[in-house]
Amino acid sequence: MIHAQEEAQETLTNSLEDQFVDVVDNSNNYQDYKVIKKTKINKLRENIMDSIAALETEIQTSETSLDQQKNKIASLTQELAKTQEDLALSRKKENGIELFGMLTEKSTYNTIMWSIILILLLALGFFIYKYKNSNSVTKEAQLKLAETEIEFEEHRQKAIEQQQQLRRKLQDEINKNRKSKS
Fold this sequence. Notes:
Blueprint: H1 2-13, H2 16-25, E1 28-30, E2 33-35, H3 38-94, E3 96-99, E4 102-105, H4 106-181
Antiparallel strand pairs: 1-2, 3-4
Helix pairs in contact: 2-3
């Protein structure tokens, strides 16, 4: 029994090729043929079947592992694409400013803002110019009005004085005429 266990242990540790060589070398010769013991051929067959089963299991495990790796790669590829998309969007947001609900580049935003400021400054300058111009025209008109009012007042005073003189003269003439008639 110990001899059989040792032999089984030996056959398990030997490779299949070594086992074939052992079976053929330890077989008896009969003319051109080799006579192999059934136990040895059955043991070799059993070892071959075990090796095939082990290899099939290993292949199946490898295929399962390969499928899992393919799924993981596909998942990681999708994650990478999404991450790259998010990164591109983040960079675009970093280099841009949202204006009226639209994402614009900072340079475009700066151009728009400075253009608006320049237009507002030009409009302010125009209105200040118009105000000063209108203000000077108004002051000039008020000055002329004041001068005209003074002239008018002087003229009125002169006219009143002339009328008073004429009335006095008229009254004097009337009085003269009355005295001369009387």
